[in-house]
Amino acid sequence: VFTAINDGIIKQPSSTLKLAIPAGLYFLQNMCMQLANSHLPAAVFQVTYQGKTFVVAILSVLMLGKRLERFKWLGIAGLAVGLALVQASNSTDSKIRSEDGQDNISRILIGLAYVLTAASCSGFAGVYFEKMVKSSDPGKKKRTPSLWLRNIQLAGWSIVLGIPVTYNTTSFDKLDPFRGFNISVISLAFNNSIGGLLVALIIKYGDNIIKGFSNAISTVLASLISIPLFGFETGYSFACGVTVVLWSTAVYGKLIKFHGDWWNTVPCQSDTDLPDTVSSTRTSKAKLKAPAASV
After folding, report:
1. 120, 144, 184, 274: least surrounded by Cβ within 10 Å?
2. What b/e string do you get for 22-55 counting C-beta neighbours within 10 Å, with b at 16 or more?
3. pLDDT tens track for 29-58
């Protein structure tokens, strides 16, 4: 283990330095989410934060060169809408109002700015980390760090960024990093760490878009489990949200197929960039419609 850390991290400072970008963005995302929660009703926060789904999809096209057909964009849009309905149904907060009873517009606008910043940071950091994990430099003699070393690099930068904030928000005489730690907290931390490793595996062998669908399904399952365990009451919005999430997942996974060239091509794609099956079909149709040559 120490040899791998020495070869993959210490002896490759430039590679380790690159992971400071997503670590800083994730750190900024968490700060913005806390500030957004204090400025927005939970329902507004949950609905607006689903904009990260589109950020991930757009950046995957721009940074990773992914080709997303129109039916996949439909599935991504449906996922954002369905997940927003599911999470908004869990919220019971009332609107934030000022002392005179009027909506505090400025406070809500600030909260929206925070949540949009958090969504953008999360989307960019996820796509950037995916690019780092899947990238390779065959011309270089040094071996590309593995997925596990990438996680160590990311965690290391998170510690470096988090310690100064901890010292600034807590007096030194009251600073106790293990205050409040019990079996429940340790179990939760262990569960989150396992979840983080699973997310890294999904990004390594899948992508951030698939990770978004996985998170949506887990949110739906957690909500369903909460019904018998905690007496969670569902409504029409929750039922509609679950239906839309499942439908969107089936659409993106091609379990529900759309016929026709329009749905199965990339937006703004020319005929020369069409898949072989589509282009050959169009060519054959053109030949059938072409008039017979006169002798």
Report:
1. 184
2. bbbbbbbbeebbebbeebbbebbbbbbbbbbbbb
3. 999 998 998 888 877 888 888 889 999 999
